[in-house]
Amino acid sequence: MTTRRRFIEGAMAAGLVAATAPRTTAALGLGADSGDQLCFERVVFDETFADARVFAVEARRRSARTSPINGSIHNLWYRDLSLRWRESKVPVAGMTDHRALFLLEMMAADVGMRVVHRIHHFEVGGAYAPEVFGPVERRNELLCRLHNSDAVWTRHAAEIVMSWPRTPTPVSSDRSDISRARLQEVDGRTLISWIIR
Fold this sequence. Notes:
Layout: H1 4-18, E1 42-46, H2 50-61, E2 66-69, H3 74-87, E3 92-96, H4 98-110, E4 115-124, E5 127-133, H5 139-147, H6 153-162, E6 191-196
Parallel strand pairs: 1-2, 1-3
Antiparallel strand pairs: 3-6, 4-5, 4-6
Helix pairs in contact: 1-3, 2-6, 5-6
């Protein structure tokens, strides 16, 4: 099992290899102004899950740069994301399992970023049952968007992420229940859509 220390050491080693690579605003995904929506550096998805692949298709349709992982975020972290976050706190979103999100959340905390929104996408008795965490004033709206639709829930999960407002996302306990998400039990088959900023 990879420890956090070995993970960080690997990221530092990868950083030395790419330290001479030129960086531009476009390379960081900070190009064109996207209006009132948050501009993501990338959208990460776990390609081992069919639902996450549908999520990525919808994100790409909305002009997102997507990065597939295959159950592990290590390659993405070592070769790319650690370098990006060292230069700028660019927002990232995605749909992964809990383990990948947990590791990304730890690394984000090291650069002063955090998960501000997440949805646990459960299937209970053949029915879709999401749990929404983040700004409390948006919970009912987001649940309605996920349930009251003729489209599959994965497309709506991507739409929610890609239309996230550019304005700061509240994380204080009186306005957000994001800290409660860590207390919820999820298994390895549960997909989570999330935003880190």
